[in-house]
Design brief:
- By secondary structure, the chain is mainly alpha-helical.
- It folds into 2 domains: 173 residues, no CATH class; 142 residues, no CATH class.
- Helices cover 76% and strands 3% of the residues.
- The strands form 2 sheets. The protein has a two-stranded antiparallel ribbon. The chain has a two-stranded antiparallel sheet with strand order 3-4.
- Helix 4 runs antiparallel to helix 5.
Length: 324
């Protein structure tokens, strides 16, 4: 696989940050609060991208992974406090909740240091991160224009906490946290997407879950929306469910098949509260999707490939269908 270099990661970071700043300015954002929020966004995004660049995570983990993990966690906490103070929303309760979200997983990782992947601390950490992101009200932690910005900030923080915990403190192997491209990847990515679409579209229509309906967003809207889905929805979910959960389940059970099916089923069940509880139609389609995402991840060894399939599915659903 030709993995993204550190300079390419910095270039992508600069382009995305500049684009986000210009787009937000065009929407009317501005002032000191906006500057604080933009600075926090830029730092969180930089951490997410740099650790996916060639050799960066290995270099940090190789010297002192546990120390590096805690230092990175401390950095995220400081940036969060700066975000709160800069946007005029500082509260000790908010800071305390975020401190727990960052340092409890790191503490669990420290307690299992040296153990093989798949300890109870590993699975408890994954469940805790997922539950925090799923059920803790985002607008309470990210109050600045929460209707538009709480989701991306929560996603970026969750990814960075998971990276500090598993890539650095736990030194997890086989996560596949990288951005790159390898031989036959087009076959795996497109094949997974097409195969799932051929199965899910007729099934979704027959279950009266979706119906054809295109959304006029223009080329720019489709591109921006797809990039947002890739980095703020598909990327975090693939890191958790494929790079960590499927990976650790396969190692713990010593069965790739068991890891794939169990992670896919749990991925499906994680959507049971979406669009009304209990949404079993969503669970079925998401569980089937998890099989294709997991296969793409396993074939390529990178969550970037599975995230591309995931993002393509979500973008197609958003722009070409409506949910009934």
């Amino acid at each position: 696989m030709k993995q993204l270099s550190i300079w390419a990661a910095l270039g992508i970071w600069a382009a995305v940050t500049a684009g986000a700043a210009l787009y937000a300015t065009w929407l009317g954002f501005g002032g000191h609060a906006f500057a604080a929020a933009l600075a926090a966004f830029a730092i969180f995004l930089l951490g997410m991208l740099l650790l996916a660049a060639r050799g960066v995570a290995d270099a940090l983990a190789g010297k002192s992974g546990l120390t590096a993990g805690f230092l990175l966690g401390a950095l995220w906490f400081v940036v969060y406090v700066m975000y709160l103070a800069g946007t005029g929303n500082f509260a000790f309760s908010r800071a305390a909740v975020m401190a727990a979200f960052i340092f409890v997983p790191l503490g669990l990782a420290a307690s299992s240091a040296g153990a093989a992947a798949g300890t109870w601390q590993d699975f408890l950490t994954m469940a805790g991160v997922w539950a925090f992101v799923k059920f803790v009200p985002r607008d309470l932690l990210w109050p600045y224009h929460a209707d538009r910005l709480a989701h991306p900030f929560m996603s970026l923080m969750a990814v960075n906490v998971a990276l500090a915990t598993f890539l650095l403190a736990r030194r997890a192997k086989g996560v596949g946290y990288s951005i790159g491209w390898g031989k036959n990847w087009s076959v795996y990515v497109l094949g997974s997407f097409i195969a799932y679409a051929c199965l899910a579209i007729p099934l979704g229509i027959s279950m009266k879950f979706i119906a054809f309906q295109t959304h006029a967003s223009g080329v720019g809207g489709v591109l921006l929306g797809s990039l947002g889905v890739l980095f703020l929805t598909a990327w975090p979910e693939e890191l958790l469910f494929r790079g960590l959960l499927q990976n650790f389940l396969a190692r713990a059970s010593k069965s790739e098949f068991a890891g794939l099916w169990t992670a896919s089923l749990l991925f499906g069940l994680s959507h049971i509260t979406n669009l009304g509880f209990p949404n079993w139609r969503y669970v079925i389609l998401a569980a089937i999707a998890g099989i294709f995402y997991g296969w793409a991840w396993k074939q390529t060894g990178s969550i970037f490939a599975s995230a591309l399939v995931h993002a393509a599915v979500d973008a197609t659903w958003h722009f070409c269908f409506r949910t009934l």
